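User: Teach me something about this protein's shape.
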Amino acid sequence: MIARTLALCAALVLAVAPAPAQPERPRDPALSALAARKMADEALAAFRAGDLDRAEALLRDQLALQPGHPTALYNLASVAAARRQTAEALELLLDAVQQGFDDVRRLRTDPLLRRVREEDRFKALLERWPDVLRLQAENNLAAVRRLFPGSLEESRDEELRVIYLSAYDAVSTEQARAEVTRVAAWARAHVFAKAAPGPDPDPWVVVVLPQPPQFLAWARGKYGDAALSLGGAVGGEYDHSTKRLVSRDLGSSLRHEFMHVLHWRHVTAAGQLHPVWVMEGLCSLPEDYDADAEGWRPAPSWRTNISKRLERAGKLTPIAELAALSQERFINDRPLSKYAQARTLFLYLSQRGVLAEWYGAFVDGFEKDPRGVDAIEAALGKPLKDVDKDYRAWLRALPDAAEQIRPGMASLGLEVVNGTGEGPIVAEIERREPDFPLSRGDVIVALDDRPINDLPELVRVLGGYEPGDQVRLSVRRGHRRHEFPVRLVPR
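Assistant: First, the predicted structure itself:
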């Protein structure tokens, strides 16, 4: 069957032979991506209606905008297979795999490909699938290096099947890798524990950690001039069709996007396409976390603060309505509110200790209820109307997360500005202590061994301390690392 994807903007991959249809390419990359998305959706509708000629024309138009896009090539193969053009379907499938198509479950089970699977070349492809994944990873790595020219240090995580390209020094890169490892360990234990993984090895993912100028250049190439107006709103992206993750910072954005990697791997192996409230709510959970002797766990954040304000104003979306939102409405109609409420609902499930139970029930019952509402009732053992009441009561009692240091709150006694994604930068020393160890330009990278990668994270973490508390502050000064004891003072 023709494949679908939720990716809003698929990155360009290696070119193929020119397609017959050549629509005028929009100058703005964002418009080009939206046009390609529209073509893909219309091709799916035409295919389902049995209009194979229109489906093919639309897919070739999409490939003119997104040369070599693996999903579009796979869908063209599906059209050829539906016409019983087995030889052409095989060539298109092999091309799709060469360009990065890696949904081996679909290749093995798609009923349209029954005749293609009888071909010796296709059988050989499946037999050497691990080698195919390795080759795809190297091709992808080479393509990403062309997108990000300059010196990016490469490292690999064989267990997670991740290739890192980092513009940061070895210590910061290792901290970022540790964050990713913690997210993966938490997800295995608290999200996917009751949902069986797929039998096949995961495709490799390339994770790019660029400096701000590189990130902005990439964002402009991807989103056009909108990247400038969006500013800090673009924190990064994971594009599942190309297996590329690009993060603006080494903290919350990286954790969010890597959770998308883990979730996409699982849903691809399960042959499912989860709704947007699940994708964004679940994957925003690791953005903010606390860690202590009890372990690593998601924490209240500025997103839950938004939900608390909505609840006080009587504008919190009921769970059933949130779960029924289309992707377009979720993303285009007050998206900050939608993201906030989705994360808050998942934090509720997490704090009630039923996140893994919910996810397992959701995956098992997906065909019956793809919204995930039945799974909420099953995990909590009560009807949805009672869940809604309990959820609202829990939200009212949830502590606010610090979003600014108000007078009287614990402070470092510094003027700090957002840094480059590695950590906040000391702009001014407000304390008048002759032996105070920090200097202007120091990059704050950790507080009491808790990684700090941006200013909102520093503010939220400081919100858990009191004036007079002593903390250990880790900073980068030039190429050296230092750790200093610092007594917190009232703001």
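Now, about its shape. The radius of gyration is 24 Å. Residues 5-27 have pLDDT under 50 and may be disordered. If you'd like, I can walk through any region in more detail.
User: That's plenty for now, thanks!
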